[in-house]
Design brief:
This protein is of the alpha+beta class. Helix content is 69%, strand content 9%. The chain is built from five helices and five strands. Strand 3 and strand 4 form a beta hairpin. The longest helix has 31 residues. The termini are close together. The relative contact order is 0.21. Functions as a key regulator of cell membrane composition by regulating proteins surface expression. Also, plays a role in regulation of processes including cell migration, cell proliferation, cell contraction and cell adhesion.
């Protein structure tokens, strides 16, 4: 049982780390001379423009930003609740709340990555000065990490439900 708990703790911390990296790092959409994420767009690694209210699809970007931040916060809260429940509740009652919060984090990261997937072309095309650069890009590793974090948080949430029944 201790090995299982250690594995779940490491898995959960890995999920949180992936969410932090995907949220913070500037590599959701990359190309030869630019990289972009949900916070800024950089051309030639020196000319960075923050995405602000002047950005044409700012509300869509804000939705992605908010759901990624919320997923990271929920994942961290789920870990703290897991640790508290580990020592406070009797067997058979553990980890339900942790599982629910972790699955909510999973849902949030799925929503963020899905919105970005659906609207990525519109987000960058509406800024005419960046269109020639962003049309030749590809999804970056932060975007891929967001989808990997989705899978990790989903599996983690299910593991907490399964672990609830263990004695």
């Amino acid at each position: 049982m201790l090995v299982l708990l250690a594995f779940i703790i490491v898995f959960h911390i890995t999920s949180a780390a992936l969410l932090f990296i995907a949220t913070i790092d500037n590599a959701w959409w990359v190309g030869e001379e630019f990289f972009a994420d949900v916070w800024r767009v950089c051309v030639n690694n020196t000319n960075c423009t923050e995405i602000d209210a002047n950005y044409k699809d700012y509300s869509t970007v804000q939705a992605v930003q908010a759901t990624m931040i919320l997923s990271t916060i929920l994942c961290c809260i789920a870990f703290l609740i897991f640790v508290l429940q580990l020592f406070r509740l009797k067997q058979g009652e553990r980890f339900v709340l942790t599982s629910i919060i972790q699955l909510m984090a999973c849902l949030c990261v799925m929503i963020a990555a899905s919105i970005y997937t659906d609207r990525r072309e519109d987000l960058h095309r509406n800024n005419v000065e960046l269109y020639s650069l962003t049309s030749d890009g590809r999804y970056g590793y932060s975007f891929i990490l967001a989808w990997v974090a989705f899978a990790f948080t989903f599996i983690s949430g299910l593991m907490y439900l399964i672990l609830r029944k263990r004695k």
